Amino acid sequence: MKIGILTYYGDLNCGTNLQAYATYMAVRKIFPNDNIEVVPIHTFISKSKFRKYFPFITWFFYHTMEAKYRTFKQTKLNVTNDIVIEDVQKALDFVASQNYDKIYIGADTLLELDRLPKDYDGLSLYWLKDIKAKKYLLAASSKNVEFENLTTKQKADITIAANQYSGIAVRDRATSRLFTNIIDSNKIEYISDPTFTLDIDYSITEQYLKQKGIIIPEKAVLIHAAMSEKWPKLIVKKLHQLGYKIFTPRFNTWSDVCLNDMSPLEQLGIYKYFKFVITHRFHDSVFCMKNHTPVMVYVIDRKVMMTKDGESKHISILKDFNLYPDAFLGCSQDTNFMNFDLEEKIEKVTNTFNPIAISNKINEKTKGYMKYLESTK
């Protein structure tokens, strides 16, 4: 049997690549004797969106990181000849030409619709409308898509596509709510992001730190913020006053140490070294929980990342682990963002974060994910 995994992968995003890898490894575990591959296609030019992370001063780090990610794609995802097809119908034709018996669509936010070509009134490739194969959503996410905001044609297309799936499993509440507008809610399963199923090899991270000569002190914090954001400078000043050293996985002008040349597997284990993490990245939350590190989460753009009723993938995962609202910081574009007593917030989040309860929940999620995948055999 030929099985395709349709997902985002290959860009310079740790979470995107590790969710693809985790999905690939999980499907291989359930189907050890079948031909399994990551569908070698992108529908947008991914590299253009990374330029904001890499000003000229980080040229060396950028190319080191790019090489590591290229190696990861080739050796861990077994993808060497991937292509970009921006035209939706041509992309669908490409997938159809691969003659898959089964296709797993997920994870990440690949059901989102904000990457569609301009003036295109339809769905993206990733909905796989009318593709002839057994199709399963596997921890898929639609980000901020709301049924009532779709065009008449999109509502019709999304209903047809949804009813063509042999199984529907989503990873967040916003996506689950979207599907309740389309199909019987009993057909929707709620499962975890696949990266919860990954085992962490800390020797990979330790080797990276040794090669770089980096020593992470006991009072260290990781902050993952966009380079354009202004708020970190004030928070970093307060954290310095409290005796913390500041690390970041992306270039900026305010951190003490920049770790922006890690491979996905090097980054996966780095979170255990920090007292806590402040981030706007969904998978940072997953990796913090895997590493038993308290996390504080925010969104940059409420309109882009959240539905009108206040749901987002960030909030959904915090709710799953009983960390909401304590660990949610809000939207960085709000005027009152980070307007609280920092010491008090750190203490509250740290006390809320229960490693034993977190581990139990991760085990539960991992079993649930694999049980659903087993049911698709």
Question: What features would you describe in this structure?
Answer:
- With 377 residues, the protein is an alpha/beta fold.
- The chain has 2 domains: 2-196 and 363-375, 3-Layer(aba) Sandwich (Rossmann fold), CATH 3.40.50; 200-362, Rossmann fold, CATH 3.40.50.
- The chain is 38% helix and 15% strand.
- It has 13 helices and 14 strands.
- It has helices at residues 14-30, 59-75, 88-97, 152-162, 173-180, 202-212, 232-241, 264-268, 282-290, 302-305, 313-320, 342-352, 355-375, and strands at residues 2-6, 35-38, 41-42, 83-84, 102-105, 134-140, 167-170, 188-190, 220-224, 245-248, 257-258, 276-279, 295-299, 328-331.
- A 6-stranded parallel β-sheet has the order 2-1-5-6-7-8, sandwiched between helices.
- Helix 2 (59-75) links the parallel strand 3 (41-42) and strand 4 (83-84).
What can be said about this structure in brief?
This protein has 13 helices and 14 strands. It has about 375 residues and is an alpha/beta fold. The radius of gyration is 20 Å and the shape is globular.
Strand content: 5-15%
CATH top-level class of the largest domain? Alpha Beta
Domain count: the total is 2
Radius of gyration: 20 Å
**Strand order within the widest beta sheet:** 2-1-5-6-7-8
Category from helices, strands and their pairing: alpha/beta
Give the CA-based shape.
Answer: globular
Q: Poorly predicted ranges (pLDDT <50, ≥5 residues)?
A: 47-57
Continuous helix count: 13
The end-to-end distance, rounded to whole angstroms, is 11 Å
Largest sheet: 6 strands, parallel
Proper CATH architecture of the largest domain: 3-Layer(aba) Sandwich
The total count of strands amounts to 14
> What's the CATH topology label of the largest domain?
Rossmann fold
